[in-house]
Amino acid sequence: MSPIRGKHACGGLSLAPKGKSHSRRPVSKRPPTWCRYSPEEVEAFVIKLAKDGNPPSKIGVLLRDQYGVPLTKYLTGRSVSEIMESAGETLEIPEDLQALLRKANGLQRHLAKNKADSVNKRSLELVASKIRRLAKYYRRLGRLPEDWKYTS
How far apart are CA 85 and CA 95, in angstroms? Predict the structure, then answer.
């Protein structure tokens, strides 16, 4: 047995965790016949949920679970993020970068209390590295200002 007890023994940035239990994407690229909402209604739902402060991933889950919309892109031709952008409801910092910043913040608070925790010091370094790499990507796309910088 591997001494590392995480999701994967030989860890990498983009390795998927073990396990098969999750919802599968619909196979067909066409909107299903049983979906009772028009593209305009789905876009209205997305904008309403975005105005309530929900991030794109949560909007997708809410549409799937509460409204029975399998995939927004197949119905409307645009992703949830694209619909939000056209309505002027974009996030200042992209959602995946926000999640990494929250994780780094939690690790920093933990390390303030537990100074000898060298394993999580390494974890913080890895998260900081991911943040810098992702920020570089978003600066190049123009989703972050050029002078945005992560300071731990």
Answer: 13
If one counts every other C-beta atom within 10 angstroms of the C-beta of residue 59, the result is 23
Query: Whole-angstrom Cα distance, residue 72 to residue 77?
Result: 7
Q: Are residues 81 and 103 in the same domain?
A: no
Q: What is the pTM of this model?
A: 0.73
pLDDT digits (tens, 9 = 90+) for 90-135: 888 999 999 999 999 999 999 999 999 999 999 999 999 999 999 9
120 CB-near residues (< 8 Å, 6+ apart) = 107, 110, 111, 114
> Is 135 a member of any domain?
yes
Tokens, residue 89: 């409801």
